[in-house]
Amino acid sequence: xxxxxxxxxxxxxxEARQNINTINPPLHRASTVLFDSYSDMLKANxxxxxxxxxxxxxxxxxxxxxxAMTELEGAYGCKAFQxxxxxxxxxxxxxxxxxxxxxxxxxxxxxxxxxxDGFMSKYGVTADYLPSDAGTDISKFMKNNTRLxxxxxxxxxxxxxxxxxxxxxxCREKGVISVIDxxxxxxLYLNPFKLGxxxxxQSATKYITGHSDILLGTVSTTEEKWAEFEKxxxxxxxxxxxxxxxxxxxxxxxxxxxxxxxxxxxxxxxxWLVNHKAVDKVIHPALESHPEHxxxxxxxxxxxxxxxxxxRDEYEDMDHSAFVDSLELFGLGYSWGGYKSLIxxxxxxRNNSFAYEGKTIFRLNIGxxxxxxxxxxxxxxxxxxxx
Length: 387
Ligand SMILES: Cc1ncc(COP(=O)(O)O)c(C=O)c1O
Hints:
The chain is of the alpha/beta class and 387 residues long. The protein has helices at residues 4-10, 13-16, 38-45, 60-73, 84-94, 110-118, 164-174, 186-189, 223-236, 242-274, 293-299, 317-325, 371-383, and strands spanning 77-81, 101-105, 126-130, 146-152, 177-181, 199-203, 217-221, 279-283, 306-311, 331-332, 342-346, 361-365. The chain has 2 domains: 23-250, 3-Layer(aba) Sandwich (Aspartate Aminotransferase, domain 2); 255-383, Aspartate Aminotransferase, domain 1 (Alpha-Beta Complex), CATH 3.90.1150.10.
């Protein structure tokens, strides 16, 4: 007969190990994972244990999410991270060493650039910035020590598209690892591996989880690049929160339906904005007016719900405030890919020549609201601008 404190510590343990066949994976909360035998522990001590030895080794929900993403991406393997920017940072760390040079497309997510300039530089890795619409012309930017090339296509603020197959062809010839942040298209609308990319990154924070309540990232690679990447993740003991992986897996189940809705509503709003007298340019890859529209048509299967626009030059910052602050259905906040419509606005600086230099680009995340209501809200907001 056990005493009370022992009962409290051990009660229900046997029942908790039951293998119940639910549709969704179990949610484990664990640092310690118990071994069945001392010989298993000895194997784990030597790094030879095949099973899960610790909470950072990948518990059920994380493994299930990573497996689902691997299949969706057509990758060899996938790792989940605590956020998209963590995923990006790990790729840059895993594939470079002191003295290397990396090429980064000019339109990447700001913190990607900050990580290169503010952190990688401390370890002797230098970065140069490619034109955002780079293609075959990239050879001239390559150096003897160029190790990695990072694309974001379309860029999530200014929406330029790179000629991915042309870039990956040069990368392969020169032994340079090609990486893409594929968050805008998701694996549903762009398959980077079919275009010769080595490493594909998702901020699962956006469309995959879809509800603006989770931060999560993924990195998927080809077979050739997996061992090097996995080794780095093993050393850092990378893991992702189980609850978030569970929600991300749930998000995947409806991703195709949500994405279609985002796509159609965003196109509807974009076409409507084209004809609005206050609007100067609408920047949406699926519109024929987009400079790389032909590349988008060639490589992508669809467009998502994020695009930009500029207003006519005569409007000042104060007019911009009147417009943005009067919107009722568009939240004013960062990130995107969720069910709620959002707006951001800002000016962007680029290393290379840039069509929107000094111009404010407004970015809309078109959510799941009724599209006519969204247009009415924009109409009333834009009416505050009228001179
Ligand atoms: C294109 C792109 N990549 C990566 C990230 C970073 O993702 P997270 O917010 O999950 O760190 C963002 C965030 O806005 C993004 O827009």
